[in-house]
Amino acid sequence: MLSFNVIPTGPLMVNCTIIYNDKNCIIVDPGGSIEKIIGFLEEKGVVPEVLINTHGHFDHIGAVFELKNRFRIPFYMSRKDEFLLRQASLHASMFGLPPVVSPDVDFDLSENVRIENTVANVLIIETPGHTPGGISFYVKELNLLITGDTLFAGSVGRTDFPYSDFNELKESILKLYRLNDNTIVIPGHGEFTTIGDEKRHNHFVRVV
Ligand SMILES: [Zn+2]
Questions:
Q1: Is 116:109 a contact under the CB 8 Å cutoff?
Q2: How many whole angstroms separate alpha carbon 60 and alpha carbon 68?
Q3: Is residue 80 in some structural domain?
Q4: Which of 6, 49, 14 is closest to 144 using CA atoms?
Q5: Which of 7, 147, 187, 195 has its Cα between 20 and 30 A from that of 173?
Q6: Is residue 184 in a domain?
Q7: Could you tell me the residue range of the domain that residue 37 belongs to?
Q8: What distance in angstroms lies between residue 115's CA and the mean position of ligand 1's atoms?
Q9: What DSSP string describes 161-203?
Q10: CA dist list (Å): 62 to 2, 57, 100, 106
Q11: How far is the CA of 22 from the centre of ligand 1 (A)?
């Protein structure tokens, strides 16, 4: 049976989501804390098939390089965020954090691409605004949406970076609001929410 688990990882507590069955898993946004991630995989006895990221910010990629090499698995992300991978260590240093080894992107994710032939069928929804290559992942079987730093419980992602755009972010969130109200939202940081709750209560982008 398909399940998911969320582990806060790295110094900025990025929500790393692991979607798994009894054999394999997909890892989303492993921000760091590799020992916690490996511990979970061993506990469940699951082998990762692919690493996928919502965007290229340093705090979301901390464990990608190491996991990629350890399990010899590919890394998928939007190539529109590749420039951020190159700046990862610089951005980490601005937070007083150690350098990050940036991974190579093996496959470019874009609108309506489906990740298939893995443990779960994952639909790619482009959600730019926080970063140009921002992506949300929708897993129909779990009624689950992983939004990265696009949409949070009661908040939205930062758009004060030179490459960010609030109007674009708003359009992205309105696109996500078309999903079923019961859809579970796992943001990049903090608590879970649902599409219905955000549509009604999110002060930044509200529709009802
Ligand atoms: Zn971010």
A1: no
A2: 14
A3: yes
A4: 6
A5: 7
A6: yes
A7: 3-201
A8: 22
A9: STT--HHHHHHHHHHHTTS-TT-EEEESSS--EEHHHHHHH-S
A10: 26, 9, 6, 17
A11: 31
What is the rounded average pLDDT of the residues 128-155? Answer: 98
Q: In the beta sheet, which residues pair with residue 148?
A: 187
DSSP bridge partners of 122: 115
Q: How many domains does the chain have?
A: 1
CATH at residue 133: 3.60.15.10
- For ligand 1, the distance from its centroid to the CA atom of residue 112, given in whole angstroms, is 22
Q: Is residue 189 part of a domain?
A: yes
Burial class (CB in 10 A: 0-12, 13-18, 19+), 45: exposed
Does 208 map to a domain?
A: no
Q: Ligand 1: distance of its center to the CA of 199 in Å?
A: 22
Q: pLDDT digits over 80-138, tens only?
A: 999 999 999 999 999 999 999 999 999 999 999 999 989 999 999 999 999 999 999 99
145: nearest Cα among 111, 179, 114: 179
Distance 141 CA to ligand 1 centre (A): 26
Interval between CA 42 and ligand 1 midpoint (Å): 29
Q: What is the pTM of this model?
A: 0.96
Residue 42 CB neighbour total at 10 angstroms:
9
Going from the Cα of 55 to the center of ligand 1, the distance in angstroms, rounded, reads 7
Distance 1 CA to ligand 1 centre (A): 31
130, amino acid identity: H
